[in-house]
Amino acid sequence: MPADPREVLTRPAPEPDRTVAYGDHPDQVADLRQPAGTGRARPLVVVVHGGFWRAEYDRRHTGPLAAALAAVGHPVAQLEYRRTGEPGGGWPGTMTDVLTGVAALPALAAEALPGRVSRAAPILIGHSAGGHLALYAAATAPATVGGVLALAPVADLAEAYRQDLDSGAVAALLGGGPAQVPDRYAATDPRSLVPTRTRTVVMHGSADQQVPVTMSRAFVAAARAAGSDISLVELPGCEHFGLIDPESPAWPRVLVMLRSLHDDH
What are the start and end residues of every segment in region (Disordered) (predicted)? Predict the structure, then answer.
């Protein structure tokens, strides 16, 4: 385990096998990784990166995670999207990009990696702000999502605004707080969009300093009460970045949960 948990964000990873575009903007792309081994085509795993929706964080920091998933047999797409601080990012472009990309990627990946990717609805793995976007996609366009593994997700935007996570990140995404733009929160906040019918697993570390585990506890409880097919896996002592680090003690549990979603698919 690295001394600095953030080391995974800059750790080198193998280059992707292909990059495909789902739109005309330079950030409307995804990096594809071919699964190791041989065998039948499998559903795509779409990785939605975090970084509090900000432009300074991009898909490259999920390279170690994506390479590790491909190494155990999953076809992987690292989805990029427009982010706050750049033209078209924030409301509504960030959300629109994710919906468009998730819907388009199974076919794009099946064409780019022949025989390795099925056109079934993909499994989404979203970390932090990417967890929010994965939950949002499943709630908004459930036919395009086969399952969600949300890793330390920002699952309650109104609460994240109240707690001022990452110094105004939610206000930057939506253009204000719940009192200023209530319709935007109603349309994009996972806490407002339950119940959802997509099978969902939320994983969160008890030692998370970036996104408090209490947010996932409250979200999953509310979603289950509303009738969602959702469960929470809480990892004692795990911090925010261990969930996306293949060298962390949490990684085997992440793989087990992903496998459970595939088996349910």
Answer: 1-21
